[in-house]
Amino acid sequence: MVAISKIATGNGHGENSPYFDGWKAYEANPFHPTDRPDGVIQMGLAENQLCFSLIKKWVMQHPEASLCSAEGVDRFKETALFQDYHGMPEFRQAVAKFMGKVRGDRVKFDPDRIVMSGGATGAHEMVAFCLADPGEAFLVPTPYYPGFDRDLRWRTGVQLVPVVCESWNNFKITRNALEAAYEKATKANLRVKGLLITNPSNPLGTVLDRDTLRSVVKFIDEKNIHLIGDEIYAATVFMEPEFVSISEIIEEVECNRDLIHIVYSLSKDMGFPGFRVGIVYSYNDAVVSCARKMSSFGLVSSQTQHLIASMLSNDEFVDSFIAESKDQLSKRHKYFTWNLSQVGIGSLKSNAGLFIWMDLRKLLKEKTFDAEMDLWRVIINEVKLNVSPGSSFHCNEPGWFRVCFANMDDHTMEVALSRIRTFMLKHNEAMVPRKLCRRSSLKLSFSRRRDDLMSPSIMSPHSPIPQSPLVRART
Amino acid sequence: MGLLSRKVTCNSHGQDSSYFLGWQEYEKNPYDEVKNPKGIIQMGLAENQLSFDLLESWLAKNPEAASFKRDGQSIFKELALFQDYHGLPAFKKALVDFMSEIRGNKVTFDTNNIVLTAGATSANETLMFCLAEKGDAFLLPTPYYPGFDRDLKWRTGAEIVPIVCSSSNGFKITESALEEAYQEAQRRNLRVKGVLVTNPSNPLGTTMTRTELDLLVNFISDKEIHLISDEIYAGTVFSSPAFISIMEVLKDRKLESSQVWERVHVVYSLSKDLGLPGFRVGAIYSNDPIVVAAATKMSSFGLVSSQTQFLLSAMLSDKKFTKEYLSKNHKRLQKRQNKLVSGLEKAGVSCLESNAGLFCWVDMRHLLSSNTFEAEMELWKRIVYDVKLNISPGSSCHCTEPGWFRVCFANMSEDTLKLAMQRLKSFVSSITINNQSHQELKNTRRKNRNKWVFRLSFQSFHDREQEER
């Protein structure tokens, strides 16, 4: 009997990775403030839930943006019929304008280069199909988003070769690392077709500095390979340093523009993953043309194109949204990282994204990925937080975890923090040095002081600690 | 050394086909009753525009579905965040119920076996990725929808081998045609993975008979291969014989526990039945849990917008609406098809008798200058550029006989259809007159030539006689 395809039966979908195991644990027992207060809190999902009230307000004030309301129904028929893979002109114009605004209007995007796709997931696969044949390879700096293993390789047959970045220099992408990866691929008889960078980075939450970007562009130009810039987190940069897009760098650095492509989406910046708005923006005409044809496999629903076109062409709304989103992300990030530091947990210094790259190396029993997995299981099963282990991001060093902070309300954040405190308290107690035991009175006072500092009741929203942004926000 | 992939530079996207070229011509000079009355009338687009008023009136009566509200509460946020590739449960339920209703409730569908995709385009490609790879082939009865060349082959690397159907029996699938296609695949060193049929058929507009369906089940059973039944036009069956889904046949033959059960997959979409191609709502239905699991993961590359899932779950759960819609839609399709058929008759053109779809399979063989595909292209160009009707030539549908054309009837107003038929009638008359006068001229010339030859030969005979004497 004929089997089904190897693609269907193989593991290329990547869902056997621990990245998804955590999701499964969460799904089996999801946290709910009243129904399931002991459930697993989802901190493995990079979603932006901080600005919905602003968006909801706009939606309510603009019924014509919905095709189906009395105000919008005149456009219903023509929209319902519209399946042109060029996409609605007003949709492309609105998205091009938004992309420009997010980059401080330092660059302009051409609506005719905007190609739709089924989310960034669809965009990445589409770009891989356009740029590489089966067996060819892309270089990707580690740590990187686990979904790339599926999106770029599964059905395309393309390989990924890691550009190893290390913690000693904050995971910067160095020329040496790029060269090493290129050489490794060549030695393995893999033809390198391109380099994929995510900027701002997932999972690091950092932006690439100008020098690194210039160096990257020079590298791909010299090697005559493509550069794909996934800029899906562009509008989540909430603090200095400023975001610099590839689209800006190519205005400064000489390079073959036919090699430059940007992947974008509204899933992170606007918090609309459900609407499946993915974009491929290429400076290469042949790629635009081919991608457009391929976009038939994942067009954006015209109903959604209509909504997005209305929303993003409203300058006032867009400007206030971008500002508000940055503000909310900044506040949440600051509160979260500050509270973590109070219990001795550090993270990579970051200014973007919807997560932090948490440093739990000192909590590992030993410097191995097995120990990382052990720690991760403890975090999921005992602390009841779904966080993503660094190994699932192909990090070369154990002990790092990606922890999302923008996908929950304030209360849930508090619960998560209190669980972390409790866990760290237990851990630190277990780690108390032997010499303190001799001075019993000291030990007592020492531990009591620790209790005062770390017990949830003191660190609650009613905490006397004046710097708490959460307290400030409520008054 | 190419900098881009082979997929960019090859032609497998199929867009150099005349099917798409006709569209391009239309786009350069589209008919508009007021603004461009001499423009090209689009009859190459299988869209259902006859029942939008029913959809619009439903929307007017159901403002909540429209404005992201449920029970008075805004669910905008929940929808905006919902990206679960398992799909909105309420939508899947409404969709399988709708699919069942279309099949007269003779079969039921399980929500666990359905996978949502961005249109049938994505559904067909995804199924192909699940079932076939480079070196594999699917057998497809001709004529077939030109888009399959792209959807099934382009990025998957799979091949299509035609099951040749002919006008001699109304293009029905025969056992010998199936076997011949299978052998042809072997000759081309391709491993046959399955058969894909479109039922009701595009471009024929006919429903498959039970005999054909039984034949297919026997064939795939015997060869132990898959069967994909693209039933995207299931809701457009406007007259008898009734639509028989492949699922119904399996049920009637009590094959639910057999091996063949898990090798039958159905593709569906709301683009034709509900007339909503812009919303990109497609589905794969499979009895094989491995295929369902793989296809579900693959659907990440083309999910249905949650906004759209929500709207349609409300609409399709309204059973009063779906019943009324299906019934009224059928009546309108039938009426409109009749208008096309009678219009064609007046022009001296016949078509394959049909009971479904949004088009007719029109027989223009008698208008060809010769029984060749060159002549078909010649005729097609005249119809597009001179008669200003964009219709689809049979060769773009891989028909093996020249002279057939697919002509759509549900994507325009009645007046536009009338005008199209008038234009066609004038054109056919002019060809006929030309042919007649051409024929008369030929006859006259032949007579004159004959006279002249006779005279000559008589003369020479006479001369010879004279000489010989």
Cα radius of gyration of chain A in angstroms: 24 Å
Biggest sheet descriptor of chain A: 7 strands, mixed
Coarse morphology of chain A: globular
Low-confidence stretches of chain B: 456-469
Structural class of chain B: alpha/beta
Shape of chain B: globular
| First-to-last CA distance of chain A | 69 Å
Mean pLDDT of chain A: 88
Which series of helices and strands of chain A comes N to C?
HHEHHHEHEHEHEHEHEEHHHEEHEEEHHH
| Percent range for β-strand residues of chain B | 5-15%
Largest inter-chain contact set: A-B, 74 and 74 residues
User: Number of helix segments of chain B?
Assistant: 16
What is the number of beta strands of chain B? 15
Number of helical elements of chain A: 17
Structure description:
The complex is a heterodimer of chains A (475) and B (469). Chain A has 475 residues and is α/β, with parallel strands linked by helices. Chain A is built from 17 helices and 13 strands. Helices cover 43% and strands 12% of the residues of chain A. In chain A, the strands form 3 sheets. Chain A has a 7-stranded mixed sheet, sandwiched between helices. In chain A, strands 9-10-13-12 form a 4-stranded antiparallel sheet. In chain A, helix 5 packs across helix 12 and helix 9 (210-223) packs across helix 10. Chain A is globular and about 65 Å long. Chain A starts with 5 loop residues before the first helix and ends with a helix. Mean pLDDT of chain A is 88; it is low at 434-475. Chain B is 47% helix and 13% strand. Chain B has helices spanning 6-9, 18-28, 52-61, 63-66, 76-81, 89-102, 119-131, 147-153, 175-187, 210-223, 246-252, 289-298, 306-317, 319-346, 373-385, 414-468; strands spanning 41-42, 69-70, 73-74, 114-117, 136-141, 159-163, 191-198, 226-230, 264-269, 282-286, 350-351, 359-363, 389-390, 392-393, 404-408. Chain B has a 7-stranded mixed sheet, with helices on both faces. A 4-stranded antiparallel sheet of chain B has the order 11-12-15-14. A two-stranded parallel sheet of chain B has the order 1-13. In chain B, helix 6 (89-102) packs across helix 13 (306-317). Mean pLDDT of chain B is 91; it is low at 456-469. Chains A and B meet through helix 1, helix 3, helix 4, helix 6 and helix 11 of A and helix 1, helix 3, helix 4, helix 5 and helix 7 of B.
